[in-house]
């Protein structure tokens, strides 16, 4: 009986030990499997994540293409709709755009044309104005030469150029020649010098230089000074007349008549004989004769109360 009990205990322990060994081995196996499964699980997760990303990218691409196709389809539909609407209404957006573009182009072209025309007109006007101004401002040289009756140049001569309008220009030269820069037009030229009669001539400047020669004749006149007095006092309201001396039956020719200034009057006379008469209110006339012979002369006429 006891043997059987012992034998049972022995068998029980053997079974328990076998079970423990089996459990231990199973635990080790499960641990190894767990480690293997953990490593495999990371790989699987990576693989699953990669596959999921590929599916997402593929889906996005398809969605984009689908959206583009739908957009194109909508655009085509909208275009068709617009075309249909244009056909129905007869006033298409395309035509409007075309018209606006054409109008814009036409306006731009018109504006460009106008700008060009205006610019050309302005340039032409400016050019014409410049030409007129240049023509107006352009000057030419007038050369004046003054000589005496022997052909010799006259020294210390004063030459005056007077235009039809505007101020005169005057120059005094030592060698009888002067130059003037003048615009186109007509001018009077005068030359004067001591002991010579003045000389004058006219000249026209017309797009070119010009020259003019003036000849001065000897001045054969001399100054006659006439003094009119009343008992030594000057008579201011007297009139003096100079007449050539008569020859034979012919009366002399009156040369000049002047009112006295401060009791005196001056006359420029050539050589010859002259009758001089002075008259004034409340006085008897007075006269005398005088001869001019290459020099100045003077006489005094005494008036008496009337």
Polypeptide structure, described:
- It is a single chain.
- With 306 residues, this protein is α+β, with helices and mostly antiparallel strands.
- The chain has four domains: 1-90; 91-137; 142-216, Sandwich (Immunoglobulin-like); 221-305, Carboxypeptidase-like, regulatory domain (Immunoglobulin-like, Sandwich), CATH 2.60.40.1120.
- It contains two helices and 17 strands.
- It has helices spanning 2-89, 93-137; strands at residues 140-148, 157-163, 169-173, 177-182, 185-192, 199-205, 210-216, 221-230, 233-234, 239-244, 254-259, 264-270, 272-279, 283-284, 286-292, 297-302, 304-305.
- A four-stranded antiparallel β-sheet has the order 3-2-5-6, with no helix packed on it. Strands 8, 9, 12 and 16 form a four-stranded mixed β-sheet that branches.
- β8 and β9 (233-234) form a beta hairpin.
- It starts with a helix and ends with a strand.
- The model is unreliable at 60-116 (pLDDT under 50).
Instruction: Report the total helices.
Output: 2
Number of domains: 4
Helix-strand pattern, N to C? HHEEEEEEEEEEEEEEEEE
* Strand line-up in the sheet with most strands: 3-2-5-6
Radius of gyration: 68 Å
Q: Report how far the terminal alpha carbons are from each other.
A: 221 Å
User: Care to count the β-strands?
Assistant: 17
Described by the principal axes of the CA atoms, the overall outline is: rod-shaped
Largest sheet: 4 strands, antiparallel
**Structural class by helix and strand composition:** alpha+beta
Q: Could you list the spans in which at least 5 consecutive residues all have pLDDT below 50?
A: 60-116
SS strand fraction: 25-35%
Average pLDDT level = 75
């Amino acid at each position: 009986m006891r043997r059987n009990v012992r034998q049972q205990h022995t068998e029980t322990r053997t079974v328990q030990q076998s079970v423990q060994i089996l459990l231990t081995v199973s635990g080790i196996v499960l641990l190894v499997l767990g480690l293997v499964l953990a490593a495999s699980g990371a790989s699987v997760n990576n693989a699953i994540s990669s596959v999921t990303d590929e599916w997402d990218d593929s889906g996005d691409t398809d969605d984009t293409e689908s959206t583009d196709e739908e957009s194109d389809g909508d655009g085509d539909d909208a275009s068709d709709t617009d075309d249909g609407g244009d056909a129905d209404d007869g006033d298409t957006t395309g035509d409007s755009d075309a018209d606006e573009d054409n109008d814009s182009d036409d306006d731009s072209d018109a504006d460009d044309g106008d700008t060009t025309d205006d610019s050309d007109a302005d340039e032409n006007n400016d050019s014409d104005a410049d030409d007129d101004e240049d023509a107006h401002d352009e000057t030419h040289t007038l050369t004046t030469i003054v000589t005496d009756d022997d052909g010799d140049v006259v020294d210390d001569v004063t030459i005056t150029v007077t235009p039809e309008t505007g101020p005169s220009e005057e120059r005094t030269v030592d060698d009888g020649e002067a130059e003037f820069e003048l615009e186109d037009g007509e001018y009077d030229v005068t030359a004067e010098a001591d002991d010579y009669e003045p000389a004058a001539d006219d000249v026209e400047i017309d797009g070119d230089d010009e020259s003019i020669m003036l000849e001065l004749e000897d001045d054969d006149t001399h100054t006659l000074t006439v003094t009119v007095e009343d008992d030594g006092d000057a008579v201011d309201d007297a009139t003096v007349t100079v007449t050539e001396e008569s020859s034979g039956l012919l009366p002399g020719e009156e040369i000049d008549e002047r009112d006295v200034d401060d009791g005196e009057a001056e006359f420029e006379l050539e050589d010859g004989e002259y009758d001089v008469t002075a008259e004034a209110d409340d006085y008897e006339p007075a006269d005398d004769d005088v001869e001019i012979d290459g020099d100045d002369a003077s006489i005094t006429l005494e008036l008496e109360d009337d």
